[in-house]
Every structure is written in C-alpha cells, then in structure tokens.
C-alpha cells in the first residue's frame, strides 16, 4: 500500500493509453477513508468524523462522440466493460464496473447531460478492507466526468449523488459517510459531518505536531454476511425509531427513557450503540477543538469499539484481538473503523511506538492462527481533486 498518488496517476495514464491508444483529457483522484469515530450513525441521521487516506483511486477519462461508456481497470486490464444507455438501468452492469456505470446513471437521473466517455481506473486503496474503495472509485469517476463534460454539479451535491449510485444502481444500502469523506475531507483535518443536514466542519487533527500517529491495522478478516448484516442493523434502527416515535435515532434525547420503552433486548442494544456513539462523536469534536488530548481521544475510541462489539455486534474475533492487543501494547485507544464484520482497526499511538504495536498485533494474530495483518500509518489527506 504505497499511498503514492503520482504512481497511481501514472498507472491510470498508462492504462488509458494502452486501452484506448490516446492520452486522457481529464484525470481525477479520490481517496479512501477511515472513520475516526461515529460508526453506523450516518443512516440514523447522526454524526460522523472521518478523515481521508493518502491512498486514492484515479480516473483518467476522455470523451467519445457517442453515448457509450467503456471502463477499464488495472484489476482487469484485458477486460474493459462497455455499456450504452440501455446498460444504465440500475443493476444492468455488475462487478467493479457497476460503480462507474452507477455514476453515469446517477448523473443522468439528476438531469445532467453526460456524454459518452472512455475511463481508465487505477487505485492504491485496499479493496475489501472497509476503507471505502468503492466510494473512492465513484467519486473519482464523478469528478472526472463532471469536468470532462462541463457539468454543473456543486461539490456539496456530489456525495448524495455518488451515494445514489451505490444505493440504487449497485444496490448497497449504505449511508452518506464514505462518499462525503472522499469528496469533502481536507488535509490535516477530520470532517465533522451532520448526516441529516450535511453541514460540515473541518476539525484540525494535528497528529504529527503532537508526536502521534493513527496506525491502521488491516485485519484481512474476510467479510462475513456483510450485506445482510448491514441491512439488518439498518432495519433494527428504523424499527426502533418507529417504536419510539422519532424520525431517526438521532432524535433520541433521553436514552434511559428510550431503553425503558423498548421491550426487545436486541433493539435496546442497537439503540444504545447509536445514541452513545453520536455522543462520542460530539465529545470527540469538542475535545479536538481545544487541542489533541491523546488520553481523552483514546478513551473515546476504545469506548466506541466496546459499543460496536457488545451492543451493535458488528466486530469479529480478528478486529477484537487487534484492538485489544494494540491497547495492551501501548496505544492510547483503538477501534474498528467502517461497516464491520472484518476490515480495519485504527489505533491512536505515540509515533515512536507504532512499530512495536504493529509487531505485537502480528504476533497475537500468528498465535491465534489468523492471517497476518497489514499495518500502515495514515495521515489525514485531501479529498477528491483534479490531477490533470
Ligand atoms: C459503511 C457504509 F457505507 C457507511 O455508510 C457507514 O454506514 C459505515 O459502513 C458504518 O459507519 O462504510
């Protein structure tokens, strides 16, 4: 995982030239993300606090004169996927190319006259690790096509448009977190987002100035039943909100009263996670606004992990072991990031301890018979932007 945007850009350009025999007209990059805190709160109209990774997906594009789109990826350089207007019915294109087709569909559905295009994709965002590789792809293609065809798509509208591609075209019932992070994050900052109003604040996150690092531990745990479990969590939240008579769980103001209203123990646990997680996001933002207190932030991260493990039940053995081992080895706090059921853990560490903490996790994984994890340090990076 290099995070090297120049080489990703070069690879996208070379792939474009090899596939289409010309140079691209426009090139965009969009990053993956980690969510510092605020998990499964987005679809409850709540709060999230992601930051962008230095790892990006790059989309190199050029126009065609006909309403036809051809997408090629370095994952399958010899198997470009072509679709016409007929292929723009949601679900018509499947696999990785669906995320690009979904963007064309969503743009056209929103009334934008997107002409045909050739698109080449290269990426160094780890795939299937819960770091939003799909949102990075969507947001890179969106930026590139908007510039290529001179479309007036305000930046503030882009996350919702990309989310529609994922929800309606691809059919994944996600919230607004990933696309917002990929488009709206700023270097050196975390993005405090209100997922109801889409109001956002760039919160300074001066890790290096404080001798701190966020270590990302990709547990490489295979995602298990992800789609069904994610949809089930959403359904539980909607059911609980209806029983409580509120538009969304974000509107629960008295947790104890809400818990005593609900008979179902499972719904109580789900509600407790969402409500306390929203509070943890607000506490994290309040804390960061007055400087970076690693002990306070670490405690919030660890409390978030416990809530995901015990109340929301979205962790697996690998992520629990990674978080617990990182803490034991000296991290200020650690939590799973992203949708769950595998994926990555983030650990807030003194920079000089990142190596030993990573090694401790690797040793614990070996002892448990788990696949070796991959660790790297991520600095809060820029949101989607044009490269050429
Ligand atoms: C996934 C989804 F895509 C996001 O919308 C969000 O719900 C996240 O899981 C959990 O916080 O990344």
From TrEMBL:
<dbReference type="InterPro" id="IPR006203">
    <property type="entry name" value="GHMP_knse_ATP-bd_CS"/>
</dbReference>
<dbReference type="GO" id="GO:0005829">
    <property type="term" value="C:cytosol"/>
</dbReference>
<dbReference type="InterPro" id="IPR019539">
    <property type="entry name" value="GalKase_N"/>
</dbReference>
<dbReference type="InterPro" id="IPR014721">
    <property type="entry name" value="Ribsml_uS5_D2-typ_fold_subgr"/>
</dbReference>
<dbReference type="InterPro" id="IPR013750">
    <property type="entry name" value="GHMP_kinase_C_dom"/>
</dbReference>
<dbReference type="InterPro" id="IPR036554">
    <property type="entry name" value="GHMP_kinase_C_sf"/>
</dbReference>
<dbReference type="Pfam" id="PF10509">
    <property type="entry name" value="GalKase_gal_bdg"/>
</dbReference>
<feature type="domain" description="GHMP kinase N-terminal">
    <location>
        <begin position="99"/>
        <end position="183"/>
    </location>
</feature>
<keyword id="KW-0067">ATP-binding</keyword>
<dbReference type="InterPro" id="IPR019741">
    <property type="entry name" value="Galactokinase_CS"/>
</dbReference>
<keyword id="KW-0299">Galactose metabolism</keyword>
<dbReference type="GO" id="GO:0046872">
    <property type="term" value="F:metal ion binding"/>
</dbReference>
<dbReference type="InterPro" id="IPR000705">
    <property type="entry name" value="Galactokinase"/>
</dbReference>
<keyword id="KW-0418">Kinase</keyword>
<dbReference type="InterPro" id="IPR020568">
    <property type="entry name" value="Ribosomal_Su5_D2-typ_SF"/>
</dbReference>
<keyword id="KW-0479">Metal-binding</keyword>
<dbReference type="Pfam" id="PF08544">
    <property type="entry name" value="GHMP_kinases_C"/>
</dbReference>
<feature type="domain" description="GHMP kinase C-terminal">
    <location>
        <begin position="293"/>
        <end position="365"/>
    </location>
</feature>
<keyword id="KW-0547">Nucleotide-binding</keyword>
<comment type="similarity">
    <text>Belongs to the GHMP kinase family. GalK subfamily.</text>
</comment>
<dbReference type="Pfam" id="PF00288">
    <property type="entry name" value="GHMP_kinases_N"/>
</dbReference>
<protein>
    <recommendedName>
        <fullName>Galactokinase</fullName>
        <ecNumber>2.7.1.6</ecNumber>
    </recommendedName>
</protein>
<keyword id="KW-0808">Transferase</keyword>
<dbReference type="InterPro" id="IPR006204">
    <property type="entry name" value="GHMP_kinase_N_dom"/>
</dbReference>
<dbReference type="GO" id="GO:0006012">
    <property type="term" value="P:galactose metabolic process"/>
</dbReference>
<dbReference type="GO" id="GO:0005524">
    <property type="term" value="F:ATP binding"/>
</dbReference>
<dbReference type="InterPro" id="IPR006206">
    <property type="entry name" value="Mevalonate/galactokinase"/>
</dbReference>
<keyword id="KW-0460">Magnesium</keyword>
<dbReference type="GO" id="GO:0004335">
    <property type="term" value="F:galactokinase activity"/>
</dbReference>
<keyword id="KW-0963">Cytoplasm</keyword>
<keyword id="KW-0119">Carbohydrate metabolism</keyword>
<feature type="domain" description="Galactokinase N-terminal">
    <location>
        <begin position="15"/>
        <end position="62"/>
    </location>
</feature>
